[in-house]
Design brief:
The protein is mostly helical and about 220 residues long. Helices cover about 50% and strands about 5% of the residues. The protein is built from twelve helices and two strands; from the N terminus they run ααααβαααβααααα. It has a two-stranded parallel ribbon.
């Protein structure tokens, strides 16, 4: 979703705001926490949308959005800045997609190794560190379920990319959109179970002791 995608299809515009909210509290995506000072988002919802679209010169989409068209943005940082955003968009529908922690940990580990000069973040130099970070995000995301109720939908990544009938129907009912054909044409099923390799036995062993991996049925 969005016009200004960066890597991982995350909105650069909203990512910048999230980073500011975290940084002003001594936090970051790598060392996350819930920021205070949500009044730092001083723009109205209409101003935010206008700047978001104008940044990429899509005036036609601005009119569509102002007319009530569905829109949104993806950024894992929202997991910790959500309280701030709900003050700007109190009626927002929150979609939480959780994924096997071992796949997330491997993705972080491999991406980190590709950075120039070898390991870019010391905090992600091991696979198990990535799983610990995943746990922080998952625990924070699930903490909103009891607060938001029907305003939030939680779905499983693996079921979604394999177009599980019930999972897709839940998403379509929640958004009011027809999504099955788009999911089927875009889902990358190679992004699952990458940890099933002998070279990742250390990660598998570590994951078996993780409470959230057990709660979500991955171990």
């Amino acid at each position: 979703m969005g016009n200004d995608w960066r890597r991982n299809q995350e909105s650069y515009f909203f990512q910048q705001i999230n980073d500011q909210l975290l940084h002003q509290n001594g936090l970051s995506w790598l060392f996350p926490g819930v920021p205070t000072g949500s009044d730092k988002i001083r723009l109205s919802s209409s101003q935010l949308i206008a700047r978001y679209v104008r940044a990429q010169s899509h005036p036609a989409q601005l009119f569509r959005l102002m007319a009530g068209g569905a829109w949104g943005w993806k950024d894992p940082r929202n997991t910790f800045t959500l309280d701030c955003w709900l003050k700007v968009f109190p009626q927002a529908k929150i979609i939480h997609i959780y994924r096997n922690g071992m796949d997330v940990a491997l993705s972080l580990y491999k991406r980190n190794k590709k950075k120039s000069g070898g390991v870019r973040h010391e905090a992600l130099k091991t696979k198990t560190a990535g799983l610990d970070l995943w746990e922080k995000y998952v625990a924070q995301a699930f903490s909103f379920e009891s607060v938001l109720g029907a305003q939030m939908l939680t779905i499983q990544f693996e079921k979604l990319v394999f177009c599980d009938k019930m999972e897709v129907e839940k998403l379509e009912d929640f958004t009011g959109l027809s999504l099955r054909s788009r999911i089927e044409s875009n889902a990358d099923r190679t992004r699952t179970a990458r940890f099933m390799d002998n070279e990742h036995e250390d990660l598998v062993f570590y994951a078996r002791k993780n409470q959230w991996m057990k709660k979500l049925g991955y171990c």
